[in-house]
Amino acid sequence: MGPEDRAFIEEAARALDASMRELEEEEERLKEIIGEERTQELGAYLRREFEPVDIEEIRRTLDFDDRRLISVWIRLERNRARRVAAGRSAMTLNAGRDDIDISAFDKPKKK
Fold first, then answer.
1. How far is residue 103 from each of residues 99, 100, 108, measured CA to CA in Å?
2. Is the pLDDT higher at 80 or at 96?
3. Is residue 24 within 8 Å of residue 76, measured between CB atoms?
4. Where is pLDDT greater, at 58 or 3?
5. Which residues contact 109 (CB under 8 A, 6 or more apart)?
6. pLDDT at residue 30 above 70?
7. Which residues touch 100 (CB under 8 Å, ≥6 apart)?
8. What are the φ and ψ backbone dihedral angles of 35, each rounded to 5 degrees?
9. Looking at the predicted structure, is the pLDDT value of residue 102 above 70?
10. From CA 60, how far away is CA 87, in angstroms rounded?
11. Residue 63 predicted with pLDDT over 80
12. What's the pLDDT score for residue 22?
């Protein structure tokens, strides 16, 4: 990988860091609006810790802020995974080892 690849990875990492900071600020703002109890309930909903009947009941009661917070959590998780991948790529480049296959460290796709 050449210097262009290194610059691309570094720029992607900076963009992801900025995006995650914005999402974390939005997360905190929404948590204040929603309240601690509802935030915990939404976290459990997202992790699917409830029975299907309860999940459907919660889904029916979701308002705009609830949906927005869930969206922010999903985007944060995705961006964190991408940032980890960018970091691994940068470490591989910095080590000067083109023989390391970083795709082996990627998280398997959920079906």
1. 12, 9, 10
2. 80
3. yes
4. 58
5. none
6. yes
7. 92
8. 100, 155
9. no
10. 39
11. yes
12. 97
User: What pLDDT digit, counting tens, does each position of 81-101 carry?
Assistant: 999 988 888 887 776 655 555
Global pTM value: 0.77
Q: Count CB atoms within 10 A of the CB of residue 77.
A: 12
Nearest residue to 84 (alpha-carbon basis) of 99, 103, 70? 103
* 107 three-class SS: coil
Q: How far is CA 13 from CA 80, 85, 103, in A?
A: 10, 9, 17
Please name the helix (run of DSSP H) or strand (run of DSSP E) that holds residue 19, with its range, or none.
helix 3-34
Terminal CA-CA length for the chain: 32
Angle at 19 between CA 66 and CA 105, to 5 degrees: 100
Cα–Cα distance, 74 to 104 (Å, whole number): 23
Structure-token pair, residue 104: 């082996």
The count of other CB atoms within 10 Å of the CB of residue 58 is 16
pLDDT of amino acid 99? 57
Overall residue count recorded for the chain in this entry: 111
Q: How far apart are CA 86 and CA 96, in angstroms?
A: 15
